[in-house]
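Narrative summary of target 7.
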Amino acid sequence: MFHFFAKLSRMKYIDRWGLMHNTRKENLSEHSFESAVLAHALAVLRNERFGGGVSPERAALLALFHDATEIITGDMPTPVKYYNGALRKAYAEVEAVARGRLLALLPADLQPVYDPLLSEGRTGSPEDQALIPLVKAADKLSALIKCVEERRMGNTEFVQAEAAMRESLRQMALPEVACFLSEFLPSYSLSLDEQE
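Modeled conformation, tokenized:
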């Protein structure tokens, strides 16, 4: 008996943004789905507008699994995770252990298939390497969208996080992200009726 997929189903119990007041809770399953949709969109933008040749499907798949280790580690708040080099290194080691524990829940013949997915593509093909920046951008876009939605609901708790996410995305200097920010992000500030 192998527990990998049952363990993944527990992503819905991992809440994000634990240190902040939320008008609506967001769990890891929701974030992973949204990140997958956004990674797919960024890959499509790269291919259609910037002459890329990446797989949107693979981008979505990598994004879908990008935070799976948090089933074991929980959602470490960004300010803590990236506070300094020592914490960053320690957290990377914790993630590696969590990745190993998750892989051990699979039969041996399936582990090589899931290892690159749980490693966010780092152990995969050159194409996976090319997709890593898009997956990271999708992860940040998902966080930015959460900030925009919280601010729209009157929650000022996310104002600084929103500014930090916008700056982080700007520094990535990806044209696909710039397109998404100008063409699609404004809709997240609108009501349902305004989105018609």
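The longest helix spans residues 126-152.
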